[in-house]
Task: inverse folding
């Protein structure tokens, strides 16, 4: 197995720097997150996904908590220690919370240095590493990860057909790529979804940020080995929604080599 040797000389406040930091994107993105009220205190981040009553996105976090608990139950079936890549981790809450119950090795990767620093501060542990890296250009170990998780992050990658082959280089032969809490559309739905996204960012006075949000269709997955672990459209989950359960409207998808 390859080793993941991280250079401590290239660190900023607990974050390993493997790619050049894009200062302009960082500035724009954090301003947007602040406008959306998605930059949280350290105390709030430490609780996620079980958000406090005062969290302005409490309802959304209730749904994400259910997604988190489903994945946690799945991870419980894996007995050996796993190397887990949390791609597009933001402040790292997903791995940080899993760390409370598992002794796996977590690698939290994003291109958002502000929230990476917060995650490194809040979830400080030998078992979690926070890494600023462009997944396409950074020097990451091949066939190293048992799991790669894209938790509400696949929409920030423009082309799934380019992303997945890159991730296949990093995941082990029997490894798994999990896509959680991200929208996939039919071809018909895509046009309307794109318009909603443009309208949303324009309303916030950040129209330029719409170019970083991408709308993927189910058809982009047809050439890959895909299994759906959670389907919001199933009869059971529709009934849960009618019963006012806070269930995610998005699929949970696992992809293997």
Result:
């Amino acid at each position: 197995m390859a080793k993941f040797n991280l250079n401590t000389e290239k660190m900023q406040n607990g974050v390993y720097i493997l790619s050049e930091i894009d200062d302009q994107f960082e500035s724009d993105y954090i301003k947007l997150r602040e406008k959306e009220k998605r930059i949280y205190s350290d105390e709030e981040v430490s609780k996620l996904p079980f958000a406090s009553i005062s969290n302005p996105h409490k309802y959304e976090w209730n749904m994400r908590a259910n997604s988190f608990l489903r994945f946690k139950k799945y991870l419980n079936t894996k007995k050996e220690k796993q190397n887990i890549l949390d791609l597009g981790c933001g402040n790292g809450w997903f791995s940080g919370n899993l760390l409370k119950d598992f002794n796996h090795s977590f690698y939290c990767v994003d291109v958002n240095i502000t929230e990476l620093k917060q995650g490194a501060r809040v979830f400080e542990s030998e078992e979690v590493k926070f890494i600023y890296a462009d997944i396409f250009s950074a020097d990451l170990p091949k066939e190293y990860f048992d799991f790669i998780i894209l938790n509400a992050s696949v929409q920030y990658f423009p082309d799934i057909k380019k992303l997945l082959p890159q991730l296949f280089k990093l995941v082990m032969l029997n490894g798994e790529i999990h896509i959680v809490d991200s929208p996939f559309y039919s071809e018909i739905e895509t046009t309307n979804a794109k318009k909603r996204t443009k309208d949303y960012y324009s309303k916030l006075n950040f129209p330029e940020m719409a170019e970083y949000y991408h709308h993927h269709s189910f058809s982009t997955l047809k050439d890959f080995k895909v299994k759906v672990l959670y389907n919001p459209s199933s009869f059971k989950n529709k009934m849960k929604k009618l019963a006012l359960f806070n269930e995610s409207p998005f699929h949970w998808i696992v992809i293997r080599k």
In short: The chain has a mean pLDDT of 93. Residues 17-256 form a domain with the Rossmann fold fold (CATH 3.40.50.150). The longest helix spans residues 58-75.
